[in-house]
Design goal:
- The chain is an alpha/beta fold.
- It has 10 helices and 10 strands.
- Helix 3 crosses helix 5, helix 6 packs parallel to helix 7 and helix 8 runs parallel beside helix 9.
Length: about 325
Amino acid sequence: MSSKPTKIKKRIAFTLGDLGGIGPEIYKKFLESNKDDCFDYILIDEELNFQEKMSHVELGKPSKLSGEHAYNVLERAHEKCLSGECDYLITGPVAKESLWLAGIQVSGQTELLAKFNGLNREEIEMFFVLDQFRTVLATRHIPIKEVACVLEERLSFVLNNSLLALREIFMIDKPSIAVAGLNPHAGENGIIGLEEKKFIESMVKDFALKNPDLKVVGPLSADSLLAIAAQKYLKHEKPDYDLYVAAYHDQVLPLIKGLGGLRAINLTVGLPYIRLSVDHGTGFDIVNKNIASPEGFESCLSFCRNTENIVFSANK
C-alpha cells in the first residue's frame, strides 16, 4: 500500500518588532498556544542575536538599539521571503520613534518594505481586514493638512492596486468597492468642501468606466457608509461591499479597532509576498505586566491558513 505524500509545510517568518515593546511577550504567548502542523515558524530575530540585545534595551521606551534591530530584522525577513525561504511574513509592532532614533526616517514598516522591494508609494497599499470587513487607506501616516493633496495624487493608484489585491489575494473576481468622501457628508455638493467635486467623483467614475463589470460607488458620506458596515458586522451579516476605501487613516481605523479589538490585521498589498502585521502598537505602557495578548499574531496566522494556495502574478 502506497503512503500518502507528505504535505510540504509553508514557512512563516515572524519578527518581534520593537524590543522595548510587547512584541517579545506576545510572540512567546503565541508559541505556547498555537502549534500548527501546516506551518513552520521562523523567528528572524533569533538570527540577529535579539536575546543579547534585550539586555541592553530599556523596556517600555523607544530606543536607537531597538530601531536598528527592527530595521535589520525586517530587511532579513524580506530577503528570506523574496528568495523563497519563507512564504509569509508576520511582523510585530515597531515604534516609529525607535526607527527615527536609529536614523531611519520613515513612517513605518510598510514604507520600509516598499523600499526594500524597490517600490514607491503608488505601488503599495495598506489594507485592514476584520473577517469580511475590508478597508484600504487611500492616504496613510501623514498630517491631516496634507491629506487632500496626497489623496488627489494617489486615489487612482489605490483603486487599481486594490482591485488586483481583491482578485489575487481574496479571490474575488468581480468585487464591489465603495469610496468614502473626504469631507463630512461627502462635501454636500461643495457646501462643506470641494475635493469631492474637484477630483474624487471623476476618479471614481473613470475607474468604474474602465471596469464596467464591477460595482463601484462613491464618494459616499463616510459616517453613513461605515456605520452601516459596522452594523452589519455586529449582526454577523455580509457587508454591502467587498472593500471600503477610506480617505485617511483615522477615518476608519478607530472603527476597525473598536469592532475587532486585536483581531483586526494589517495587510500590505503590492509586495511579491504576503506581509501581515498586528493592528496594535508597541504597548510600552504594559510591558512586563503579563497582560499583553497574542490575539493579533493569532489573527495573522488564521489569515495565512485561509490564503495558503495563493500564487502572485509576479511569481507565476
